[in-house]
Structure formats: C-alpha cells, structure tokens
Amino acid sequence: MSTLFQPYTLRDVTIPNRVWMPPMCQYSAAPEGPAAGAPGDWHFAHYAARAAGGTGLIVVEATAVSPEGRISPYDLGIWNDTQVEAFRRITRFLVSQGTVPAVQLAHAGRKASTERPWKGGAPVGPDAHGWRPAAPSAIPFDERHPVPDELSLDRIREIVGQFRAAARRALAAGFEIAEIHGAHGYLINEFLSPHSNHRTDAYGGSYENRTRFALEVVDAVREEWPDDKPLFFRISATEWLEEHGWTPDDTVRFASELHAHGIDLLDVSTGGNASGVRIPTGPGYQVPFAARVRAETPMPVAAVGLITDAEQAEKIVANGEADAVLLGRELLRNPSWARHAARELGGEVHVPDQYHRSV
After folding, report:
1. Each residue's pLDDT tens digit, 5-45
2. What is the dihedral of CA 184, 185, 186, 189, to 10 degrees?
3. I need a labelling partner for 81 at 20 to 30 A (CA). Which of 185, 280, 284, 337 fits?
C-alpha cells in the first residue's frame, strides 16, 4: 500500500493521509470595517474544494494575530470573535470531508502593510489601508520597504499575548492543529536571524537571545493549545546567505529545542528574510533540509518545495525524508491532486458521494 496514503497521528489527532496543503495567502479579506480579516465566500470555496479533493490536512493561510500583523490589509486575521465565527463555517466543512483543519498564526513584522501581489506587492500607507510596520530592529527588508519601528520590550510582550489570544480563538473556531509562522522573513524569523536582528538587549546578539522571542511565543501558544492537539512550527531552514544569516545548523539545533517546548512537527521551508539572494530551485529542492532535521533530531517534519507528482511525493515519505509533504502550487492548479495521486499509487482517499462518478 502507498505510504503517502497511510494515516498519520500526532497526539490525539489522526490525519487520514500525508498529502497536506500549506498556508498560501489569498489576499481576499475585507481590509477594514466589521468584516476586516474575516474569511468570506472565496476562502470557503477555496478550502472546501481541496478538502473535497481528498487533501488530508489543510493549513489555512497566514492568519494575523493583530491588525498590524497582516502581510497586506487584505489578509485574514484572528484577533476578534467575528473572525472566529466566520472560520467555523470553513472548519465544519473540512471536518465533514475527513480533512483535518489547521491554521497558521502569524505576524508579518517588517514585511507588513503591502499591496496584494497581483497589484505589485509594494508597501502601502494609510491612504491604502496600510500602517507603519514594526520589527526587532529598525532595518527595512529592502529598498522599497520603509524603515520599521524597533519593537520595545512592552510591545514584544504585547505581541506574545496576541499569539496567546489567537490560539484561544483558533480553538474556538474549530481548528485541530495550530502552526506558528517562524519563516519567510516575517516577525519571528526576523528575531531569529542575525541578518535582521541587530538588538543589543535580551532579544538580540547571541543565538540564545535571538531565539528567545520564538520560544516565548511557542510557550504561550502551547499553554493555550490543548494537550491532545498538535502544534506545528514553520521555519526557514536557511536564508541562502553565505554569512550573517540563519543556517541549517541553527535549524537542527533549534528543532530539538522546539520539540522540548511542545512543538510536534516542523514545517521546513527556506528563504524569505533576505532580498536579492540566489536560490538554487529545482524539484524537491527544500526536501534535504527537512530530511536532515528528521535524521538528526526527534522532531517529525513535513517537506515543501516543488513537490509536484505522485511518485516523487511517495518516495519522499517512503524513504523517510519527511513524515508528510505539503503541496502548494500543485494544489492551486489541481484541487483534487490527492484523489488523482491515490488512483495512481493504489491508495485511498475520501470521495464525496456527489463525486463518485469521477472515481
């Protein structure tokens, strides 16, 4: 039988297969007003289609813990109860299809307040629903981005509290798994990296200081998240910098620490915190980073990065390089990828009664 279509259990949650959908922002929420940050019809249709297509786990896109934590004014958020109620519609449907609903809790840091990608993705100000971003240090992401405000110690404590509150709301919204976004140059990643963190206090300088904020967030979320439900952490395993960046060695070291703090799985990606770097992309180009973490630490991992066909995904899991695969663009192109892969590999997935003619 196909390894890709074997169930996978973390704590008391069993995911029906190893074909998972990573968080991919849709930039389709209202930017302000009563429905700001709440999922709407687009989000429901988008996630429902992938659940009906047999995807075992869906991680809802980066969902901000505060209005200022959004990547764009059009991002999802989970800082109020209106948003919680809107998410329940999605989580209920995912569960009805046998899919496990997860959510990525996020703060964009210095990369916040930008336009939607199809409109250029440039930073926006108050005249376009934007705001001034904040970061560990007053260092802009690139020449297009404004210099962010350096976070005070009080603001750091406040943001940790926002992650805590977001975890409570995520549970109320019906999510079975929460993922903390520590990758791609957003706030937690900015603290981790010496490239973006030039602080001289307890949150900067040494490895121990640079990881302090991330571990405080993990501890706060884990305290709110039930013991029987898993908690994930997404990390950029490398910044693709020759020096003064977060490295694969750092990732291996940190993975063991995260595991000790109650993280159940590391979602291993790369890049995003340094502009203008050359990344050697190709099929499965990020899988070796996940495989190393899995081999050298007690942490389970999920692999991402140009995983496109069924045989490739099967080998990654069967060979022990990862415990699951996260397919991004392929699931945008084909919501029923899991069903088609199961047919090719001799696996089984849930098929809605309405779609049995397609089997």
Report:
1. 999 999 999 999 999 999 999 999 999 999 999 999 999 99
2. 90
3. 185
Give the separation between CA 193 and CA 137, rounded to whole angstroms. Answer: 11
Q: What b-and-e string marks burial along 249-278, b requiring 16 or more CB atoms within 10 Å of the CB?
A: ebbbebbebbbebbbbbbbbbbbbbbeeee
Residue 10, SS3 per DSSP: strand
Query: What pTM value is reported for the model?
Result: 0.97
Tell me how far apart the alpha carbons of residues 330 and 336 are, in angstroms, rounded to a whole number.
10
| Rounded CA separation 100/84 (Å) | 17
The CA-based angle 307-252-14, given to 5 degrees, is 55
Annotation says 47 is catalytic: no
186, 207, 285, 355: which one is catalytic?
186
Tokens at residue 105, please?
Answer: 């809790």
Please give the Cα distance from 180 to 15 (Å, whole number): 19
Across the range 73-101, mean pLDDT stands at: 98
Longest dimension (CA), the chain: 63
Residue type, 128: A
